[in-house]
Each structure stands twice: as structure tokens, then as C-alpha cells.
Amino acid sequence: MKLENFIKKCSSILAGMVVFFLAFGMYMSFKGYVMNPDGSIVLVQNAQASEKVAKDGKIAPNLLIPWGPQLGSNSAKVTIYEFSSFGCYHCAQFQLKTLPKIQENYINKGLVRLIFDDFPLDKNSMQASLLAHCFSGNKFFRVADMLFDKQREWGSSSNPKEIFLKYAYLNGLRQEDAEKCLSDKEKAEEIMEVRQFGIANLGISGTPSFVISSVKGREIIYGAPDYETFEALIQKYMPEDKK
């Protein structure tokens, strides 16, 4: 009888493990990851990406890049597409240290505009993206700055939802509206589509990544350059009459 109970117990454990790994696989697939045979987890990469992004970082001029929240004028001559995760340390450094200088010297003068494209790296950063998208216009970027500034607080929390609801309240959003945003499946799917676009068409596998675009061409930059490097890139793609 004891042996029979032991076998039943083992069978239940094995069945539970199978269900766990199936659910885990579906979850990681949703986030854009796959598991290799050796157990390592990697981002899904598109084999055709190299045809769209050349070795020198140039991008096909007819490639339509997703359009997220915008900072700056529609008439700006240079556009920076920022693929960013709210849970990424280097993204926070760019947003809080480098972007204010770009904004002061170029965005506020109507020369450059920045487009924010979400590239969440985990569940918490996806929730942060959903919260930020509760807001529009310049307020999106104010909330984004808060999320980057408080990254350690919510990033290490076992219950980040309560923290996100607090941020929503501090920015004038009712709890019930914030909860709707945090559970917005349609917006989550849109965010994941942007993320998969970056992987498949731009070869992005980490954050932050940037596309610099103007009538003079387009170029992708992986990683977070310092302000001086960004300024050189802006000048490179700025029309001659605007320099």
C-alpha cells in the first residue's frame, strides 16, 4: 500500500512538472523568448534581419518604424527612435542623464524629435510600460521619468502592482482606471508587436537601442552612447541648412 501511494505521489509530481514547463514555455514564448535544447533562454531572432540592417548599421529607407509617444515637434529634421525597457539600467541612464541635454539643445529648439518604442525585458517592465501608456503627451514622459528614477523600488518588488498604483495616484489617475491600464491585453499585444518588430527588422536583442533618421539616411545604434556621441550623430544626420 505504501508503494502504491509512493507511485501515485511521484506521478502527481511528474504531472505537475510537465504542466509547469508547458506553461513556462508558453509564457516565455509570449515574451518573445525560446528555450534552447541545452536549457538556455534566448530572444527570438529573425533570420531575415540582416537583410534590413546592413553591417554598417544603415537601415532601408522604406522600412516603417513603429510610432510611439513623441517628444518634440513634427517639423523636426532629425528623428530619434528609442527602443527602451523601463527595467533597464542603461535605459534609465539615457533617459535621466543624456536625454535632458538632447532636449535642451535640440528638441526644445525644434530640431530633433524623439519617439519612444517599448521593448520590455520582463513582466515587471511590461507592467511599467502599461502604466506609462495610461498617460499621453508630455505626461507620458513625466511618468516615464518617474518609472526610470524609481526603477529599483518597483523592479525588486514582489508586488510591483501596488507601487504602480501609487505612481498612478501621484499623477492624478484613479485606481480603477490604473488597474484597467495594467490589465489592458490589447495594449500589451501592441507593445509586444513593437518589440518583435525591433527583433525581426532591426536586429535588436537588448536595450537601449536607437535609430537616427533624417532625409540624409538612417542608422541604428545598439547600447547607450554618451551625449557627445549622440550630438555627433545628430549633426551627421542634420540637414546642412539647420546646422
Concise account of the structure shown:
It contains ten helices and seven strands.
Short descriptors:
243 residues, alpha+beta, Glutaredoxin, 2 domains, 5-stranded mixed beta sheet, 10 helices
What's the SSE blueprint?
Blueprint: H1 2-30, E1 33-35, E2 41-43, H2 49-52, E3 70-71, E4 78-84, H3 89-107, E5 112-118, H4 123-132, H5 138-149, H6 151-155, H7 160-170, H8 175-182, H9 185-202, E6 209-214, E7 217-222, H10 227-237
Parallel strand pairs: 4-5
Antiparallel strand pairs: 1-2, 3-5, 4-6, 6-7
Helix pairs in contact: 4-5, 4-7, 7-8
Structure description:
Helices cover 52% and strands 14% of the residues. With 243 residues, the protein is of the alpha+beta class. It has two domains: 2-43, no CATH class; 49-242, Glutaredoxin (3-Layer(aba) Sandwich), CATH 3.40.30.10. A five-stranded mixed beta sheet has the order 3-5-4-6-7. Strands 1-2 form a two-stranded antiparallel sheet. It is globular.
By CATH, the topology of the largest domain is: Glutaredoxin
Major sheet: 5 strands, mixed
| The CATH architecture of the largest domain | 3-Layer(aba) Sandwich
In terms of DSSP E residues, the strand content is: 5-15%
Unreliable runs, pLDDT <50, ≥5 residues?
14-52
Number of helices: 10
Look at the helices and sheets and give the structural class.
alpha+beta
Shape: globular
Report the CATH C-level class of the largest domain.
Alpha Beta
Distance between the termini: 86 Å
Overall residue-averaged pLDDT value: 82
How many independent structural domains?
A: 2
Kindly report the spatial arrangement of strands forming the biggest sheet. Answer: 3-5-4-6-7
